[in-house]
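Reviewers of the previous submission asked for a worked example of the structure-prediction workflow described in the proposal, so we include one complete record here. The input consisted solely of the amino acid sequence. No template or homolog information was supplied to the procedure at any stage.
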Amino acid sequence: MSTELYLPTSLPFPIKVLKIPLKPPAEVSRGTNLLSYSYVHCDKPTADEPEPGPEVRYGTWDSPIEGVIDKWNIRPGETVSAKRARGEPVLLVNEPCKHGMQLGGLCCLCGKDMTECVLPSTNSRRRYPRRACATTCNPRLNASTLRLLC
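From that input alone, the workflow returned the following structure tokens.
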């Protein structure tokens, strides 16, 4: 099953998608550039410049997860509003493991070292179970507490 990725709400919407460097079925890892975009920035008036004009700025969006790109729901040249970004995923990614259960800093399902893994950001609406966060973020948990969580 694919993981739905949404654009972060912190982006300066509306944005215009300029470039999507990876096409399905490309493999991505955490931090891989997924798209480049532009937006119009308007400075606030200052004493030096009472009526500043709009300025086009550029940005990128990087992958918060690793996996294989399944499908893009946007194309280069499209303008994405904040409402659209919240309402529909821009990308579907097949993850090899969602690391849903962790113990002692390792994923119980695939064995990956999760001490380097950051929990999902606001880029994804998928959430890890509470037990995954508890075992990763609280090293003082003992074995009996972990059995209760899992």
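The mean pLDDT is 79. We consider this example representative of the routine output the project will generate in years two and three.
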